[in-house]
Amino acid sequence: MFCGLQDLHERLDRTRYDTPLEDSQFHYGFRGTELQKIVSYWRNTFDWGKQVETINRYPHYKTNIEGLDVHFLHVKPPHLQPGQKAVPLLMVHGWPGSVYEFYRIIPLLTEPGKHGLDPSVTFEVICPSIPGYGFSEAPHKKGT
Questions:
Q1: pLDDT given at position 70
Q2: Any idea where the Epoxide hydrolase N-terminal domain is (predicted)?
């Protein structure tokens, strides 16, 4: 079992659900009966292994910038022609968001020839998680 997954399962198992008012639909908030269905799927059916495999498709790193640990992906092109240099490309997600937004385009940028695109322009992609998102540390004070 993956790190933290047992803890998540235990917390999900301890969840207390409200009893919705009769025929209230979602007028008074999210219905506990619907939440139970979602939690059951997440707890018993969801393929956590596949998600871990997907997340780990690209190399992850952390660096410290002005006292904050910042997570980032750094994906280098696997194949360059002799003398060819990759163009560095910094891709930053918005708020709210995550580096996962870029997972489908990264291969097109780092291996364009493999996807029917012009291989003469190939990118080296760096995708930081903005502070407080993904695996980046949240700021501890206002400002920088």
A1: 98
A2: 5-102
